[in-house]
């Protein structure tokens, strides 16, 4: 995704706009539809994490009509995120009602590329920020538009697409509060490897979540057999906008803390999103490690779900090319799970070290392991069989 800073009159960065980018070398957005918005939201909240992207500053996220009228969910709570209504959205009665419902729930709204002759004027009473294009509008139009907007109390005006020093000077002269454009700071592309949960797994999970009586055990079972979805839901529990402050030690904890409605919203959004996929062999390796850690943890009298979580997250870290400690720092983990991943400490750290030693065929370390090598071999074969059956089941149904 792209991240472009927003500056105040003192030159300080006071926020960021998050922008869709099709690849690491893309300079501009190739799409501004629901697909692009879904990718930005999923990546920001569950792949990168808001803290990593924007720190404690607010971020502007472009929304299309589908999100404004409720056809697609806004799966994060009001807070640091500003919902930016694109200039391509026609503010008809349905959009106005949707935006009013969002502001009533506490969301902050910005109007992008505002033009007084357009339908967006109907949204002014609900807006906090209004953006004006400094590149495509002439001085006379900008001056008249600013005068009109100043009649509406409580608006913060943002000069966007400020491409030259002359346009920046004009924006200051007209009294804009905030500024955004290449003359100040270009959008920087932030890249990371993502994992796309299987389409069948999403559909299965959506089915499990839409019944009148939701079977939490089935939901947890569906989530835990998909490393990407497990990872995203854990990240979602730690999002600054999620409102969750408790710590989790298993996927079940994350599902219970997020709640069925929030999990349903994330899964629905992931159906629209499409992030780069891992291979079946890579997914299988993660599942085998997680299952093996679960078995070893149970053998040592530890919670098997915590063992599975430790193995799962260490495997996901390998897939996305990050140290397990970096992944753990961005997740709401219980102290024992965090200690195992960050420092390799505690009994769960011992579980993970044992499994790593088995994977590397480190005979010296295995000689000191708390589990007999023969038992480890049996546990590995069982984990391999479970992983194969899981992936075969998904393959048979695609």
From TrEMBL:
Residues 1-201 form the EAL domain. The keyword Kinase applies. The keyword Transferase applies. Residues 195-386 form the HDOD domain. It comes from the Bacteria. One of its GO terms (molecular function) is kinase activity. It holds the Pfam family EAL. This is Histidine kinase. It comes from Virgisporangium aurantiacum. The gene is yuxH_5.
